[in-house]
Structure formats: C-alpha cells, structure tokens
Design goal:
Elements lengths: L6 H8 L4 E5 L2 E4 H18 L5 E5 L4 H12 L3 E4 L6 H10 L4 E4 L4 H7 L8 E4 L3 H6 L17 E6 L9 E5 H14 L7 E4 L6 H11 L3 E4 L5 H11 L3 E4 L1 H9 L13 E5 L5 H11 L3 E7 L2 E8 L15 E5 L4 E5 L12 E6 L6 E2 L3 H7 E2 L2 E10 L5 E6 L4 E3 L2 E3 L1 H8 L5 E11 L3 E10 L7 H12 L6 E5 L12 H8 L5
Parallel strand pairs: 1-10, 3-4, 3-5, 5-6, 9-10, 9-11, 11-12, 12-13, 25-26
Antiparallel strand pairs: 1-2, 7-8, 8-18, 13-14, 14-15, 15-21, 16-17, 17-20, 19-20, 20-21, 22-23, 24-25
Helix pairs in contact: 1-2, 2-3, 4-5, 7-8, 10-11
Length: 504
C-alpha cells in the first residue's frame, strides 16, 4: 500500500512555485526546498538508523531549516543546542543524549571542538558548507518519510534551560509536534499571504513557527545575524506580516533609533512570550504598532501552545492593560490550577498550573524520577503559579520554587514585578528572595530605569507601599541592565548569586 504524503510534502506540492524560505540574498521555492530536504534526508537515512540522535549546533541560517526538516523525514531525533552555551554545557548535552551526529557551521565549529575535547566517544560531524554537506544534497532522495507509520517515535529532545538546575532532555514525539502545529493553526492567524520573520534562535521558539508557516504556504524570512536593525530592513524589503520575539528583544525594538526610519506598516501580528513582559514595554509597543500583539505561553515540556492572549484581549473594557496575563487556554488544552495536594484551588487563589493536552512531553530523557514528579495521572505539573480571574484569564505569579515566604506571608515575585513595572520610570524589574534573620525571607528588587530617569530607592518604596503593603521589597538595587541567560531571559540565579556578594 502506498504511504500517504506527509503534510509538508502535500504543502510543497500545493505551493510549489511560491517562495518558502529566504536567507539574505538566497531564496528557495517550496518545491526547491522540498527536493533539498528529500536528498539530505536520503543521505542521513543511509548512514543512521531510525531514532539516532543528531545535535544541531548552528546559527540561524537556511541550512538549519533544511536540517530540521530532513531529520524529521529520516526519523532521526533532533537535539537543538543553544549556540550561546559554554563548551561545558554543549558537551553535557551531546554526551547525555549520546548523539550519533553533530551538525554545526563555520561559526560554531570551534565551540563544538572545545565541547568535545574531553569526550571519549565522539559523534560523527558535518560542517555546513563542507564537502560532506554538499554531498548530502546530491544523494538520492528518500523514498518516504520514515516516521510516517509511527507517530509515536521520538522526534526531538529539547533540553530545558537549566536555570533552576541541571538541564533535562524533554522527549517530544512526532505526535506531540503534530499537536503543537494543530494548536497553532487553529488558534493563531497564519495564512498563505503571511511573510514571517525569524529573529530569535531557530534552536528555540522561533524554529517552532517554521513548520506551521510552511503548512499554510507562508514565507519564512531569516533575519541576518538576528539583529534588530536587520529585522527592520527585512520587514520593509519583504513586506513581512509577522514576527515573534522575547520581551527583552521587544523592549530593544521599541527603543531602537531605527524604529521610525523604516516602513513597518506591513506588520499584522507580533508574538511574544517566554518571560513576563514589562508593563511599559507592552504599553509602548501597542502605542507604536497598534493592537497586533499576541502573548503566547508554553514551556519546553508542553511546547509553545498552552495559553494565549490575543490582540483584542490585551486591553480591558476600562482601557487598562492586562499586564502579566497569559490569557486563556488553547482550544485543545486543559488547564487546572492546583494546590500541592492536587486539589483545584478556588478562582482568584494562586495554584500551580497543571496541563493536559496531546502535545505534553512523553518523558524526560532517561530521568524516570523527574518524569514521575512532573507527569501525574495524565497531567503535567509545570511549576508555574497563576491565578484565574473572574473573566477566565490566567495571571502568572511566578515559579513555585521562587515563592517567597516572609513573616508567614506568601509573596509571588511576578506580582511584585508587575506592579513595580507599571511605574512610568521603570524599564525592567526582577524580584528574588533572600534569607532574612527577622522574617525568614525578604523580597529584593532589581530595577532598570528608563533612559534619563532619576528615580531613587525611597521613591520606589513609597510608590509600592500603598498597594503592596508588607509585600514591598525590603531591599532595592538600581542597575543599568539586568543579567540575561543565553536564552535572553532575566537571569534570576545570577541575581541571587549577586546577593551573596557585595552589590555595587
């Protein structure tokens, strides 16, 4: 019996002559991209068995997309690796997943060398642009998708950032990924008239948007070197209709001197997520771009599509912003907020977000104890705390392990960050807990002011006390910038480490 075409093969035929992928001056139609992917998949399938792990250590480039699609077609397991990781971090991931192949490029080859310098077992390595990569593109096309008959095969192992401990490999099957794409295509607006720019790392959330865009016939544009000034150029040049980014990047965008230099009127949507967005960043972005922003909430263990706040939902009926709100659940996602004993909490109370959906991970790679703690009775316990308001919107309160207990009161850092961030002179804020001899723990605020502001600690404390009362941070530090993780999020572990040392 003939195997039916995969959704991507069907899309390649349907949109054959349309541009699918743009990388600076290079571009490929859907038909051209599909042929290249077929040949790379054929070459890889001839060398590696189904289920072999392949680490992708590559900067944003068209070849990353080709490799991602080819690995899926060959039923090899994709293991994306952050190019900003240290050699030690890269080496741990490659060894932990027992990678059979490492794909890198000229910009990451030295990092790969350093990461594997002390390894006794070395994976095969292909460098993009070398003779072996060129030969892959000339091999006989793969006959059919090797994953087509078994969607429960492992598609990817995506490692968590490790911000709260040793990174864990999140195992996602082909069925999991199909559920992600279904969620995105049902609840997000992506069409064949879209041109989507990718500025974030393709190894992370940005790469998740590529396949649904291809399925809908949209054009994918890779922003050269991931620079904001290049994003503006690509938007104007290709009439980009949408892009996604983390709030840190959106803050830089709205303050960038080139923001008003280019014609960005083609934009119809901007997605953001992965960390809380500062109130002032959200307000200024909506003021400049209009009501086109969508907040997307997900986590590696339930990739990308758990809850969303659409453009019209960002503003309440009274005109105020829903800052800190992650919206409502995706159509085919169940969310319940629970107490530690598993019982649902009352509306308005803080509880841990638990999720039931088809895209929830299968397991943590070779970590049965951690898997059992996270997956209970068909529900994923996320570690994220939230409240549900009377209108059915979820508001994040923070991570369960980050909750501060001060004088017997529970303090949720994101609620403090949300309020402090509303001050017109505050650009960015983070709150962490530290030991306190009198109260057990105390909240400490780290603040970045907007350019030209001269706000002091006393003024910040006076601003907070009427609203926050005893939850007002007991210590304040005003910095020019907050430390960031390799993923671009605020590095709270780094902030806690700073509290153990003298803070300037």
């Amino acid at each position: 019996m003939t195997q039916p075409d995969s959704p991507l093969r069907f899309a390649a035929r349907r949109f054959a002559g349309k541009i699918a992928l743009v990388d600076d001056e290079r571009s490929w139609t859907f038909a051209e991209l599909d042929e290249i992917v077929d040949r790379i998949a054929g070459g890889l399938a001839a060398r590696f068995p189904v289920g072999a792990r392949c680490a992708l250590l590559m900067a944003n480039r068209a070849e990353y997309v080709m490799a991602q699609l080819a690995l899926e077609r060959a039923a090899l397991v994709r293991v994306p690796v952050n190019t900003r990781f240290t050699p030690a971090e890269v080496g741990r991931i490659v060894r932990d997943c027992e990678a059979a192949l490492l794909l890198c490029d000229q910009s990451t080859a030295a990092l790969a060398d350093a990461a594997l310098a002390d390894s006794s077992r070395l994976p095969a390595r292909i460098v993009i642009g070398d003779g072996e990569w060129t030969q892959l593109k000339r091999t006989a096309p793969i006959a059919a998708d090797r994953s087509g008959d078994n969607l429960d095969l492992i598609c990817s192992i995506n490692y968590t950032s490790g911000s709260s401990g040793e990174p864990k490999g999140v195992v996602l099957t082909f069925r999991n990924w199909r559920a992600v794409y279904k969620n995105m295509l049902i609840d997000r607006r992506i069409g064949d008239d879209d041109v989507v720019a990718h500025i974030g790392p393709l190894t992370h959330a940005a790469g998740t948007y590529v396949t649904p865009c291809l399925l809908r016939g949209a054009t994918n544009v890779i922003v050269p070197k991931g620079r904001i000034e290049n994003l503006f150029v690509e938007i104007e040049r290709h009439r980009v209709t949408g892009f996604t980014c983390v709030p840190t990047v959106l803050t830089r965008i709205i303050h960038h001197p080139d923001l008003r230099v280019h014609d960005l009127s083609s934009l119809r949507w901007i997605g953001y997520g992965a960390e809380p967005i500062p109130h002032n960043t959200l307000a200024r972005a909506i003021e400049h771009f209009g009501p086109i922003l969508t907040q997307n909430f997900g986590l590696t263990e339930a990739m990308m599509t758990c809850a969303l706040l659409g453009p019209a939902e960002h503003i309440r009926a009274d005109g105020t912003l829903r800052t800190g709100c992650i919206g409502r659940a995706y159509t085919f996602v169940d969310i319940v907020l629970r107490a530690a004993d598993g019982t649902p909490v009352a509306p308005g109370d803080v509880g841990e977000i638990t999720i039931r959906a088809e895209h929830v991970m299968r397991e943590y790679w070779r970590k049965p104890t951690e898997t059992a703690a996270a997956l209970r009775d068909g529900w994923l316990w996320t570690g994220d705390l939230a409240r549900l308001d009377a209108d059915g919107f979820y508001y994040l309160s923070g991570r369960s392990k980050d909750m501060i207990i001060s004088g017997g009161f529970n303090i949720y850092p994101q609620e403090l960050e949300r309020f402090i961030g509303r001050h017109p002179d505050v650009e960015e804020c983070a709150v962490v807990g530290m030991e306190d001899a009198e109260f057990g723990e105390a909240a400490v605020a780290f603040v970045v002011l907007r350019p030209g502001a001269t706000l002091g600690e006393a003024a910040l404390r006076d601003y907070c006390r009427p609203e926050l009362g005893i939850k007002t941070p007991r210590m304040w530090h005003i910095f020019d910038a907050l430390p960031k993780t390799p993923n671009g999020k605020i590095d709270k572990r780094g902030l806690r480490a700073m509290l153990a040392e003298p803070v300037p």
